[in-house]
Every structure is written in structure tokens, then in C-alpha cells.
Specification:
The protein is α/β, with parallel strands linked by helices. 23% of the residues lie in helices and 31% in strands. The structure holds S-adenosylmethionine.
């Protein structure tokens, strides 16, 4: 088999990462866009030692799980790889992939993994979207044929796997109607404004990102234009016009990223209009979210994640450790079930947010320790009843796992966005702990991302 060859295959599974899997002559073929049940003609793109990568050229017989994707950008934008897969099957596959990750774990029976909690909204569920400006628009095949479309401006999303190819987005189904209208207004305004787009090669120009945020509970919207240098006066007219068209906008900000790296993070911040934050409520807690704050992007589902952590932690604890505590949301949800919650977090600004979030909600039994957990955890002499951890995708360092096992809390609640590293870490913990239950929670419909919470009890 070689590159460019056409094959006719039957796809029978989904791989971790969302691609379809077929087997040909005992070799695994990963098919971008393929769904279980599809019979398709595919073109080989890469032949590797252990597998083949291929792309669908023709769906001969579509899988019964297929549905029409709502979005006109589906297949070209990298955002929603599974919009063509019926949602009930998306959540089912997420559970199956979790099971697959834990397959090698001795003693774990499938019943331990609950059915995935579906997201309350499957469209318009995001409270934050980042759109990039470009002066070199990426044209999709249908656009290439239209001579009226100019390449010198776009405000949209990245083509998958590419940092410098940005395609125009007319409507994104992951954000609500107001956010789509703000996007369209901004595309038209800046296209005609004459303000230069920041160029990724020459590092000249101004406009970098449009970041939209929304609070579901208060119906407030924030618009943040990220520029290469301060642009308060240059953006004044834009802010005025936005305000007159969108009464829902309560905050217009200009943040500045003067660095070469193309990230939507501002080092300086200028308030062009309204407040410097929007306010979100979850249960009885209120959060002030500013331009640079981290906040879960599907808040209506995040509350179910936090309720699961609350339930697994149980009540009447003396001391809870919250490892990788971020902006302190988990600690806040646990504060009512413990005498004290101690959070450990690397990023100083997240620790400041966590302290402010607690103060703003009159929570006085949470303490946050800034720094690398590896440096801070072993020197801490107190003994927690429970350790909750929510590590990044890479999972936990071996030293931290050892330190946790030395502490021997009664219970561990492990929150994860990566089943592979979660299973690897839990494997180590099972020398002392047993897995009582795992709850997958779908935070990101139409993507293959899987969030889950595990409860481990001391054997
Ligand atoms: C998945 S997030 C947790 C978010 C948090 N639960 C929240 O709701 O805000 C992982 C967090 O781990 C932090 N982190 C990563 N490596 C760390 C380390 N070695 N020590 C302490 N914190 C670390 C990151 O800064 C990030 O805030």
C-alpha cells in the first residue's frame, strides 16, 4: 500500500482523537471524517510502520449514525469534528473510549463507568470564542472559484492544524446569535476601517484577535480586541458603534499582546466602554470574569462537573486538598463540606483570581498556595481526608502521585480532561486505592474531548 492509492473500506470503530478506524490486511487505517458503519472509498495519505492515514474521497454507503451537519463550515473549520455524528452516539462513544483507556486496569468492571452526562446545550454552549484577524485569508475550495472574494482580510477561525491559515466564519454554531452578530459587525467594520492587521511574518500591523465572552446567568457580553500595541483612540469609533447596535454588551476592552507569539493574551488592558469584567453565577456563587481570566467554557455543564466532585467528596470533611486548583472554582464548591480547603496552583494570577473569587463570595475557609505542587506538597505536614486533583492534559508527575500515596487520604477525587493520562495515573494509585466509580461528563459536544471524574477509595 502506498501514498495516493485508493481503498474501499468499512469503518468499524472510532479512535481516541475522533478518527474512524478500519482494518485492511491486518493493518489499522485511521480515517479523518469516517464514522463507524460507513463503507467508503479513501485515499491513502501516509503509510507508517504501524498504521495508515487516509482521507475519505467518497462515502459509498453512509453509516446510520450519520446526520447532516448544521454548520456550513463543517469539514473545513477544525472546531466540530463530530457535528455529523448523532449526539446520542457522541456521548456513547465518549464513554466507550474511557472504557478503552481503562481496559488494562486490573479489577475494573465496565459498570464502574457511568453513562456520560450529556451537555444541557449542544449548540451555543460556549461562553468564550477567540477569532483571529488575518491579512492573508485562507480560501476554501468554493471560495477560490469566486473572483469577488479578496484575500487581504478575514476575521475567523483557524484551519485545523495551522497557526497561520485563518478562514472567514459567517456563523459559528458553538456561540449564540448575539455573538454571531457581533462577529459579523466586527468583520464588516474592520474590513473597511483601514486599521492594519498584525502580520505574522513582518510583525507589523495592529489587529490580532476578537475575543467574545458571555455570561449565561446575567446575559452580559464582553468584546475584547487584542492588538499589537495600545489602540484606545483608534478603537473609540468601533466601541461607540458597537454600543449603539448591541445593548447587551456591558464591557468593551482593548488588551495588548506586544509579543511575536500569536496568543490571545493581553499584557496591558484598556477599558474602552463599560466595566472591566462580566459577572457569571453558578449555584449560589458569583464570579467576576475579566479579559484574561480562565473560566470553564461550557458553564451550564461545568456546574454538573462541580456537583459530581461535591457528591464524590461527600460531607463533613476536616481538610480537603485541591491540587491544580486554578481559579479556585472546585475549592469553592467544596468549601461548604469541609472545615478547610487548601488549594495548590502554579500560576500566580490564577491564585489571585481564586482568592478574589472566595472573598467575593464570603468564603473564608479556603487557602491557596502558589507554586509548583512538586515543591510544595511534600513539605506540607497536615493530613487531608480527601485529595481532589484536576491536572492538565499531561496528567500528574510521578513524585506527586507518590506524595499523594504517602499522605493516604481516605478518598481521591480525580478530575481529568484526558482519559489516557488519567488511566495511567490511576493505575499507579490502585496499589493503595480502588476505583469506586467514574462519571464522564460531556463538556464539549461535537468534539472528541472527554472530561471525567473518578472516585477512588482507600483499599
Ligand atoms: C485543568 S486546570 C485546573 C482548573 C481548575 N480546576 C479550575 O477550575 O480553575 C490545571 C491547572 O493546573 C495548573 N498546573 C499545571 N502544572 C502545575 C504544577 N506543576 N503545579 C501546580 N499547578 C500546576 C495549571 O496552571 C492549571 O491551572
Amino acid at each position: 500500500m502506498k501514498k495516493g492509492e485508493l481503498l474501499t473500506i468499512n469503518i468499524d470503530k472510532l479512535a481516541f482523537g475522533g478518527k474512524g478506524i478500519a482494518r485492511v490486511d491486518n493493518r489499522v487505517v485511521f480515517v479523518e471524517g469516517g464514522l463507524p458503519g460507513d463503507r467508503a472509498e479513501v485515499k491513502i495519505q501516509k503509510v507508517k510502520k504501524k498504521h495508515i492515514d487516509a482521507r475519505i474521497t467518497d462515502v459509498i454507503k453512509p453509516s446510520p449514525l450519520r446526520r447532516e451537519a448544521e454548520c456550513s463550515h463543517f469539514g473545513q473549520c477544525g472546531g466540530c469534528k463530530w457535528q455529523n455524528l448523532d449526539y446520542r452516539h457522541q456521548v456513547q462513544f465518549k464513554r466507550e473510549q474511557l472504557l478503552e483507556s481503562f481496559r488494562h486496569l486490573a479489577g475494573l468492571t465496565p459498570e464502574v463507568i457511568h453513562q456520560t452526562t450529556p451537555s444541557p446545550l449542544i449548540f451555543a454552549y460556549r461562553n468564550k470564542m477567540e477569532f483571529s484577524f488575518t491579512d492573508n485569508r485562507w480560501l476554501v475550495p468554493e471560495e477560490l472559484a469566486d473572483p469577488r472574494i479578496k484575500k487581504d482580510f478575514a476575521l475567523g477561525l483557524h484551519v485545523p492544524g495551522s497557526y497561520d491559515r485563518v478562514m472567514h466564519i459567517e456563523k459559528c454554531w458553538l456561540q449564540d446569535d448575539v455573538m454571531n452578530r457581533i462577529l459579523n459587525f466586527s468583520q464588516n467594520y474592520f474590513k473597511q476601517s483601514g486599521l492594519p492587521v498584525f502580520n505574522l511574518k513582518t510583525h507589523e500591523g495592529l489587529l490580532r484577535f476578537l475575543v467574545l465572552r458571555k455570561s449565561f446567568s446575567h446575559g452580559e457580553y464582553m468584546v475584547n480586541i487584542v492588538t499589537f500595541r495600545p489602540a484606545e483612540s483608534l478603537l473609540a469609533d468601533y466601541a461607540n458603534k458597537l454600543n449603539s447596535q448591541f445593548p447587551e454588551i456591558t464591557s468593551i476592552i482593548n488588551t495588548v499582546n506586544p509579543r511575536v507569539a500569536q496568543i490571545a493574551f493581553g499584557e496591558e488592558e484598556y477599558v474602552l466602554s463599560g466595566q472591566d469584567h462580566i459577572t457569571e453565577k453558578m449555584d449560589e456563587f458569583t464570579f467576576e470574569i475579566s479579559a484574561n481570566s480562565f473560566f470553564q467554557t461550557n458553564p451550564l455543564q461545568a456546574v454538573h462537573l462541580y456537583h459530581t466532585v461535591q457528591k464524590y467528596a461527600g460531607r463533613h470533611n476536616n481538610l480537603i486538598w485541591d491540587l491544580y486548583s486554578g481559579t479556585g472554582t472546585i475549592a469553592m464548591f467544596l468549601a461548604g463540606n469541609a472545615r478547610k480547603v487548601k488549594g495548590f496552583e502554579l500560576v500566580e494570577s490564577a491564585v489571585m483570581d481564586a482568592r478574589n473569587n472566595c472573598a467575593g463570595n464570603s468564603i473564608d475557609n479556603c487557602e491557596f498556595i502558589a507554586g509548583d505542587i512538586r515543591d510544595n506538597i511534600s513539605g506540607t505536614s497536615d493530613n487531608p481526608d480527601i485529595i481532589v486533583c484536576d491536572p492538565p492534559r499531561s496528567g500528574m508527575h510521578e513524585d506527586i502521585l507518590k506524595a499523594i500515596m504517602n499522605k493516604r487520604p481516605q478518598k481521591i477525587v480525580y478530575v481529568s480532561c484526558n482519559p489516557a493520562t488519567m488511566a495511567r495515573d490511576i493505575q499507579q494509585l490502585t496499589t493503595v486505592y480502588q476505583v469506586a466509580e467514574i462519571q464522564p461528563i460531556d463538556m464539549f459536544p461535537h468534539t472528541y474531548h472527554i472530561e471525567s471524574v473518578a472516585r477512588l477509595e482507600l483499599k
